[in-house]
Design a protein that fits this description.
Layout lengths: L5 E6 L10 E6 L3 E5 L4 E3 L5 E5 L2 E6 L1 H4 L12 E8 L5 E8 L3 E5 L19 E6 L5 E5 L1 H7 L6 E2 L1
Parallel strand pairs: 2-11, 6-8
Antiparallel strand pairs: 1-2, 1-9, 3-7, 4-5, 5-6, 6-12, 7-8, 10-11
Length: about 160
């Protein structure tokens, strides 16, 4: 029996990059919850956070994290609680902020690897990039790597 990978795709809130539209790809298994609204806290000059299930989690704007220009404020933001396991087998969670629609889809067929990609910042926090059937470029952010880049160890208790 063949199992199909389910992924969440989110159009990146940025103009085309090198003439190609970008989208963020997140494994359905990493997506824990979708929030329509959160109470935002400024934990440090560089990190915005929100409370989720008795923990304070960093709020990440993927476009800003990777140094991509934003297309504009768009619609009301959605907040995606995403989890990952570090190489030390610790569970980390972050909240990804996006104004764009999230679509869950089953992957049928094979992704094709594109030419090497270099984003303006934090390339090490990208697990991979793939050419999508619609011609866009799908980017898999490394949630554990992003958490490490922020020096945000395990989820902070309230």
């Amino acid at each position: 029996m063949e199992t199909k990978l389910e992924i969440a795709t989110i159009k990146a809130n940025t103009p085309s990059f090198g003439g190609v539209d970008l989208c963020w790809l997140i494994s359905r298994n990493q997506l824990e919850f979708i929030l329509q609204d959160v109470t935002v806290f400024q934990s440090s000059p560089l990190i915005t956070t929100a409370e989720y299930q008795d923990a304070i989690l960093p709020i990440i704007n993927l476009e800003q994290h990777f140094g991509l220009p934003e297309a504009g404020p768009g619609k009301a933001s959605k907040y995606l609680v995403v989890r990952a396991v570090t190489t030390e087998k610790a569970l980390v969670k972050v909240i990804i902020k996006t104004p764009n629609v999230l679509k869950i889809q089953q992957v049928e067929g094979v992704f094709t690897a594109p030419r090497p990609l270099s984003l303006p910042r934090n390339n090490a926090d990208l697990m991979g990039s793939y050419s999508m059937p619609d011609g866009s470029l799908g980017l898999f952010p490394d949630v554990a790597g992003i958490s490490r880049s922020l020096n945000w160890g395990q989820n902070q208790p309230i």
